Amino acid sequence: MQNNADLEKEEFKVILLSHNQRVTAPRLEILSILKSNKKPMTISQIHSEMKDKKTDLATVYRTLNLFTDLRIVSEIDFKDEFKRYELIFDRHHHHHIVCRSCGRVDNVEACVLGELEKMLQRKGYTEVTHSLEFFGICEECRRVSVSQNLNNQN
Amino acid sequence: MQNNADLEKEEFKVILLSHNQRVTAPRLEILSILKSNKKPMTISQIHSEMKDKKTDLATVYRTLNLFTDLRIVSEIDFKDEFKRYELIFDRHHHHHIVCRSCGRVDNVEACVLGELEKMLQRKGYTEVTHSLEFFGICEECRRVSVSQNLNNQN
DNA sequence: ATGGATGCAAATGATTTGCATGAAG
DNA sequence: CTTCATGCAAATCATTTGCATCCAT
Lengths: 154, 154
What we know:
homodimer; Dna Ligase, domain 1; Arc Repressor Mutant, subunit A; three-stranded antiparallel beta sheet; three-stranded mixed beta sheet; alpha+beta
């Protein structure tokens, strides 16, 4: 009888093999970390969550670049200095909203861009994709900043 | 009688002064370059278009960071290694589509995200903005690649 | 005058790369 | 056994920063 970890490992093997890629320990562990985290992760977050501490940062970079090319992950830009990565398979298309103050990330499930993409295809573009991120101040940060302003009034 | 260049210079002075910023030659020239180019530009594109060849790259970086903070320009990510910048004032809100093959950039005037932003505000987020870029293969690149495939068939 | 902007040079830091070794198929 | 992935170290390259000087106000 297989446990969850084994099942997951089988799933990841299938993914790698179906892309004609070798199954290696770092690749499996990176996929597992991405799967258990529900939010886009930076390279160094991924690296520091690895149990296998001898895996080099360069391997993590190479692996995520590979996965991006294979479209196993998508590369996400939150307008800071780090690229972030998120699994594509097993999650439906969605976007994010990032709090400009605390960095909190929520998913935005709705996507209304199908019409725009169709319009672009009518203009001659093919293989149209898009990258969309929202930025704002989350409720908690707004509360904190309001109470700070009150404190400064005395 | 003022010519166009003088008028433009006056416009840029007003912008800088209204943000309590000093009017300097590099700042005026960078604004002018951004205005005459209708597409987002990289730092090094901006720098190489400057007539004043003694302006340092560091100054261009500092100026664009300043303009971004002041929301005079917006910083745009085309998922390559360079940040790009575009004037905000005097152009209405729009997005871009970038050809993944030749890099050609077109404006996408329609924006259908007002509803989504309202939904996010109902969820507690304030000061909501978004970044949206499209990627695809433009008609010309598709034609080239089709004819290349034909050539390879003989 | 004087605080801020610039040029110059050096530092920073994320990302990439060359190469020898080890592991996957 | 042969191709490809990895570890390690060094290189790369966009971007930032320290500092002396210059200039806008």
